[in-house]
Design goal:
The complex is a heterodimer of chains A (about 375) and B (about 900). Chain A is an alpha/beta fold. Chain A has helices spanning about 20-45, 60-75, 100, 175, 255-265, 290-300, 320-325, 330-345, 350-365; strands at about 1-5, 45-50, 80, 105-110, 115, 120-125, 150-155, 155, 170, 180-185, 190-195, 200-205, 220-225, 235-240, 245-250, 275-285, 305-315. Chain A has a 6-stranded mixed beta sheet with strand order 4-3-2-1-13-14, covered by helices on one side. Chain A has a 6-stranded mixed beta sheet with strand order 5-6-7-10-12-11. Chain A has a 3-stranded parallel beta sheet with strand order 15-16-17. Helix content of chain B is about 65%, strand content about 10%. A 6-stranded antiparallel beta sheet of chain B has the order 2-1-4-5-6-7. In chain B, helix 17 (about 725-785) packs across helix 18 (about 820-835). The longest helix of chain B has about 140 residues, at about 205-345. The two termini of chain B are about 30 Å apart. Classes of the chains: A alpha/beta (about 375), B alpha+beta (about 900). At the A-B interface, helix 1, helix 2, helix 8 and helix 9 of A face helix 6, helix 7, helix 16 and helix 17 of B.
Amino acid sequence: MKFLHTADWQIGMKADFVGRAGQRVRDERIAAGRRLVDAANLERVEFILVAGDLFEDNAMDRTLIQKTADILARFQGPVYLIPGNHDPMVPGCVWDHPAWRSAGNLAILTEEKPVEIPGGLLFPCPIRDKYSRKDPTAWVKEEKGDEIRLGMAHGNVEGLFLDQADLPIARDAASRANLDYLALGHWHSPATYPDSGSVVRMAYSGTHETTRFGERESGNALIIEIAGPGSAPKVRPIRTGALTWINRDQEIHAPGDLRKLREDLEGLTDPETLLLDLRLKGVIYSVDEDELAHIADLIASRFLYARMDSSGLLPSPEDNQWIEALPPGILQEAATRLRRMALSGAQNVQTASQALLELYTIAGEVNR
Amino acid sequence: MILKSITLSGWRCFLDEISVGQFSDQINIISGPNGVGKSTLFEALRRGLMDSHSVTGLDVSAIRPWGRVLTPKVTICFSYGGVHYRMAKQFLEGAFSRLERKENSAFRPLAEGRQADERTRELLSKNPPGRGFSQSRNWGLAQVLWAPQGEMKLKDLSGDLVSDIRTALGSQVFDRSSGPIEERIAGLYDRFFTPQGKVKSGKAAPPIIHLRETLEQALQRRGDNLETLQRFEEASKRVEELRARYRQLTLEAEELAKSVREARHRSDDHRILKNQINTRQSEVEKIEAQHRQIKQHIDLIRSTEKEIQEKKTELTRFESEAPLKRQEVENWEKNAAEAKKDLDTARGEENKVARAEMDADTARQYVDSKEKLAQLSQHIRKIEAAERILEGHKKDRAALVAPDRRTLKAARKAIQDRDEAQVLMDAAMITLEIKPEKKGLMEVISGEETGRVKLSAGKTAIIKGAPEIVAELKGVARLRASGPAGDIQTHRQTIQEKDRKIGELTRPFGTADINRLEELTEKAENLDRQVGEALKELETLLGEDELEELKKEEAGLGATLTGIEKEHPGWRKSPPDKEELKRLASDLKREYNRKVKETEAVWDGAQHALSAAREQEQGLLVRLEEVRKNIRRLEDNYTELTRDGKTPQERETGLNQILLEWDAGKAALKELKEKLTEFVDNPEAALKKLEGSLEAIQGSAQKTRDEERTALGSLEVLAAKGSYSALAQAEEEVAQFQEETLREELRMDAIRLLYDTVNQCRNEAIASVARPVEEMATRMLQRIAGRRIGRIKIGETFEPSGVSPEMVDSAVELVNLSGGEQEQLYLATRLALAEALAKDERQMVVLDDVLTATDSGRLARVMTLLEEAAERLQIIILTCHPERYRVLAGAQFFDLESLLKSLG
């Protein structure tokens, strides 16, 4: 049997950390869904398993539900879905939408009952509560059979994080239930769990499109091939995500560092699919003030989303030149005081730095 | 600014046009006595330079000359920044304003109307307020440079002036090249903040305001969406709870239904058993009834036989008693008849008794009536006597015509008045007494009584008259006697009037003698009193009775007595003894009653015995008849009872058989009842209770189902809103706006910090500049007043706040200085400030009648300072003491009084 394992599409998720780019990020998740279904069709998998959290919340815009159902309906085979902790099976949930009934190939598995699937048996573990201390796979009994046994569950594999007591899934859930493969959802980065025989029988597919900065290796689905009951599954990731999330901490020490950074940023390809979180730290020289403004303009205009935190940049203590160039008297005194404030490490350091920057800018404009 | 000349007309005391000038650039003294118009000139200068030409109000109307309708007008020539200007202004009617500038030796129009006003003000003050020039704090630099009369003190300097002074002083100290940068900083600051440091609002609001508003709205939307999402989740929970509850209730209902079925089976069994018991019970009762019936039949036959026998015995007895009873009745009838006869005899004596009683009563009535008649007659006699007396008194009174007291009083008064009039008349009358020695005849021609009067020798003849007496003694003399003219006529009239009145009053009484009248009156009063007493006596005798009624009663009694005497003629002569008669009647009656009672008792006894005997006889006959009837009836019953033809043995046998059946039925019933006791509770009641509980649970389940449907409806509505999606969008917006707001706030804080830092630096620099002003003012004051006062303390606003004498550690307030010293202090401060302000531009200082409290010694020192100041300042002094300023070298004097005179 060959199938595609995916989970955690989180359709409709909010992305408040990327400001106005949030809607674009949401749209990309739907586009990634299309790519996934196209990939599944191209790979000629027999069915798709969606292991929970297809949607971010049950109170989703209903048109998104229809849209998602339509995307999945384009697959040429059956799609088996279980509710996750974000879209649990509760009254008013997304699964009540008539879209699931009108599409003939979509099966929402809401009961703890084995389901016959092409080439085997599927043991779904639907989630009925946002929070639960119960192992959703506990109902699956070990039974010997002559068909491939698959499981689909959503939760935390024990040992993942010590403080995650929610929806615990035993580390040996697959072998305990005699499952050939247990498709997992909940964590957005892919992960595999080899059994005692080093055979991967449990895996998180991860989310099909990266959801935030710092998310490791997300934006994929898994293609699983199992030759027969008891065979070791072949697990292969396929890329489905399109966005690139770049998290960058940059140290600025010398004049010109900012220029290099700018050039670097200018060199990034496909900026319209890039989200950038840039943090600058170090010292800034007066000659680089323009460069900083240039970078600010660049990131504001070129990328899908970008933010720059330059609060870590302080005026260089050795950089007196521009202050000496100011008219003597009040202005020089004011500039000196502001720099002192900016270097003092007091609470208003950032304000003082900004004030100094304003003075520098005005002086520069007047002198021009 | 330097004043060149000033021309005004139609302004208070200046009716015609007057021109003062050309002023020198240094010291100018404008002098004149009080009221000549010095201060008016100063006022015209101020209004001309600062007021709007279109200003209205009582204030400006007051500059019009008293009692005239002229339009005030002023023209001021001045120079500023090396340029000559001419400002012409007219107020009130036809108000206008025109500013001209000298170009190519000729004045050319520069501005008119409001623009002219504003341009002029701008020359004198950087930020002219536009109104309120009546207050010196709105004069700009002139507030320091010009001291109106009595206002030498520097106080309430406007913020703009202080700022201008600082600017003026600062511009001399700091680098000009910093100006553009500072302006840019100020401009940048001004974009965001008000001068008071608050963030601008309204149309000029910076982007942060809009950002904050937008953020607020986004937060609001987020709040709303969050609330909707929470409601959605609550609705979902509610539906879930209701479903769980419905499931629970359904399970409970199923359990309960099972119990109900079991209870129903038990109930059915119980009911069947009870029915069997009831059936068996009925059968047993039926058999018992049969047994009882048969037994009763047999008993009845037996008892009937017995009864027949008894009755026959009784019949025999009664038939033997009947004749005896008859005999008894006859005996008692005879006795009763005898007793009745005796009774009738006794009763026959009744009339005798009645008659005796009647006689006794009549005797009593006769005796009583006779007594009463005698008393009544006596009483009537008394009354009649009293009537007669009364009549007599009345007659006497009627016969007496006498005046009442009122009339008497009136008569007395009239008599008195008359007598008085008479006396007066007599007094007014002339009296002539003639005592002839021989007889003669006198003719009274004029007098009270005229005519002849015989004269007798030795007999005095009195002649009265008024106003004169004229008498003639024939052949002897004519006598005339006259006296004082009195009002004889009035008195006479009075006398006549009174006489007439007396006559009226006394005529009915036949006398006018007052004494007689009094007697009559007393007599009449006596008679009245007697009449009253007689009447009272009569009333007492009558009481409430009428005499006629008493007489009728008397007559009645007389008739009664006559009637009785007719029946008892002997009584007329010998009246009966009513007591004796009464006693006899009583005895008779007593005897009669005794006899009657006795015979009645006997008769009653006989009647009772007879009645009783009759009753008994009747009863006996009735019983006899009854017994016969009963015997017949019993015999009929017996025939009926034995109609079936059975023998007694046969009946006994049937009875025993029924008894056996009855016993068998009772045994079977007992068995069934024992089975019933196995049911410990009431199955029907238990079933009803369970059915009730089941119905209640089913009802709850249905209700829960309905609630679930309703909740589901609400949930679907909320789900359709897609609140999470809306919330996601709102939160993204909030995050975006918050970031932008923070960024903008950082920028604004930075701009404020930059601005404040620059200002702080400037103020510190300026503070260092203000010190020279303080030092200069102090030096000036010390040159005037000596070192005693010490150092002038000038505050940030350039107003003197105190002095620091050398011998004192702390500052001394200015109120502690004398009036003259204060004058001198303020003059020194004004001059020091003026000199500081005049570094770039020569300034005009105007002093209107100042230093009035300064002594001549110090004044001389002031003159020296003025001369020195005149090298940098134009000084214009208005005074009524020009002589004080004669010592000033180079001073130009303008005598206003002479000027006015010269104008004619």
